Amino acid sequence: MRNSRILFIMPAMAAVALWPLAATQNPAHAAASAPDISGVYWATTYSPQIQPVGGAMPPYKPEALAQYKKNMAAFAGSKIDEDDKSRSYCLPDGVPRALEDPYPFEIVQAPERGEVYQLFEINHMIRRIDMQKPLPPEKELAVLPFYAGHSAGHWEGDTLVVETAGYNDTTFLDNSGAPHSDQLRTVERIRKLPDGKTLEDVVTIHDPEVFTKDWQARFVYQARPDIRIMDWNCGEKHRDISSVKGVHPQ
Amino acid sequence: MTINSALTRAAAGLAVALGFAGAPDVSVHAADTAATAKSDAVPDFMQGRKMWVLAGGPNYLPVPGGKLPGPVTGTDKYRPKITDPVAVTDNPLLQPWAKKVMDAANQKVISGVIPFNAASRCYPGGVPGILLFPGEPMEIVQTPREVFLMWKRDAQIQRVYLNVPHSKNPPYSWYGESVGHYENGDTLVVDTVGLDDKGPIDRFRTPHTKQLHVIERFKLTNGGKRFEVLVHAEDPGTFTSAWEGLIKFEQGYEYRNDHWEEDICAEAGDGLIPVPGAVPIPHATKRDF
């Protein structure tokens, strides 16, 4: 795996200590006062390269940048690179790649379960956000990494704050081959904008093995109560996504 | 707002309409559901965060007191040499073309060919076939507008849209279009059409057409520790009559079956562990975007 080549076996960086931990979570208020952000959402624009807020390129370390350039070359063209298992065998995209895909997803709020789900159409990835418990320690997460990571969330006013770690290191950050390591952690701030129809997800990306500093990307989606998530089987014809700006059907 | 209160309000204002133009004739069942839709209480299939496992084996069970024929069954006469399921095809339920297809499939299995099993080969499990996948648990997530049947196996999901009629022309797909409602405080009724002809009905490779119409009645039992599913299937293109079968689930046992884990089927698929002679797992060579 091209991703695994940049998996540096190092102790967790001290920077993790600065990470906004889930200690502020308050399970008691999660169900009682949660805003309703449930529904189907779909991006209107697409770029294969994840776009950092206020910058052209994520702050790669030199060896990671070299790996990224190799990946980009392999990802180019209409034929799927076999190492990109999210496309060749439709394994889950992981996060944040799934956030930039030009297919819709659904947010499901289940306060009785103390959970929020993000259900993606592409590769039918289930992302489960635990609203009752903080993230387990790194050592526990490392035993059973998930493609979607392990997520814990809480509400801060109108914003769903989701911290995710324990990622499977075989995914990519985007559709151009941006690499990451198993040290990847993300924090997302997800909210509906004042128009009530737009969902914003600002994700902070922390991966000290790959990047020189934390950085952010921003995704926006339109609420689509008029559509339903469709079944997905790898290699079959899927929904028409030509309306998503930036998509170039192959 | 709790799910119960929300659903009570939703149910009070909505008429359940299961019939629609172009669908198979469901008049008998629609009348039955209309007559029994008295309670708007919401049965709790979540039971906290419990997961459910198949409790009665991977084949349909007889329906006690059932008035309709049962489903296609299997035979053990080729065991122990052949352990894959072999169907009994001299079943009056099957139309001639379906019997012919199943006879041919049987012969392949008897000769040692690995039969196609959708869930085992990382394909969507279909309706109602996915309920019979024995290996891994499922959970039921209930919201006021939708119910999600989520299988740990390959993160497969069947969505059930509550208290709405079927679409006029639902697109055909592996899981079709499911609409549902609650009855009697203990039952979730799921009505599914729009099924393509690929999803499995059972482990015996019983074929079906796009006319397949399935009604599943999920009923909580044993104080919420179990539920059973009465499966009612009609397909005038395949069967000579409607048939019914029963499937039972129970709460999963700790440790592995009481909480969610990712279990991605293709992760151990052909790319890593080839299975000679088996149908290849789903694979794409061309990008969608």
Task: List the topology elements.
The complex is a heterodimer of chains A (250) and B (289).
Chain A: H1 27-32, E1 39-42, H2 62-75, H3 85-88, H4 97-100, E2 105-110, E3 115-120, E4 126-130, H5 138-143, E5 150-156, E6 159-165, E7 185-192, E8 198-206, E9 215-223
Parallel strand pairs in A: 4-5
Antiparallel strand pairs in A: 1-2, 1-9, 2-3, 3-4, 5-6, 6-7, 7-8, 8-9
Chain B: H1 3-13, H2 27-36, E1 52-54, E2 74-75, E3 86-87, H3 96-110, E4 138-142, E5 146-151, E6 157-162, E7 177-183, E8 187-193, E9 213-221, E10 226-234, E11 243-251
Parallel strand pairs in B: 6-7
Antiparallel strand pairs in B: 1-11, 2-3, 4-5, 5-6, 7-8, 8-9, 9-10, 10-11
Explain the overall architecture.
The complex is a heterodimer of chains A (250) and B (289). Chain A is an alpha+beta fold. Chain A has helices at 27-32, 62-75, 85-88, 97-100, 138-143; strands at residues 39-42, 105-110, 115-120, 126-130, 150-156, 159-165, 185-192, 198-206, 215-223. Chain A has a nine-stranded mixed β-barrel. The radius of gyration of chain A is 17 Å and the shape is globular. The model of chain A is unreliable at 4-31 (pLDDT under 50). With 289 residues, chain B is an alpha+beta fold. Chain B is 12% helix and 22% strand. Chain B contains three helices and eleven strands, in the order ααβββαββββββββ. In chain B, a hairpin with a 5-residue loop joins β5 and β6 (157-162). Chain A binds chain B through residues 38, 46, 78-80, 82, 85, 87-92, 102, 108-115, 117, 119, 124-126, 128, 144, 146-148, 175, 228-231, 233-236, 238, 241, 244, 247-250, and chain B through 2-3, 46, 48-49, 122-124, 141-143, 146, 148, 150, 154-157, 159, 161, 171, 173-175, 260-262, 264, 266-267, 269, 271, 281-289.
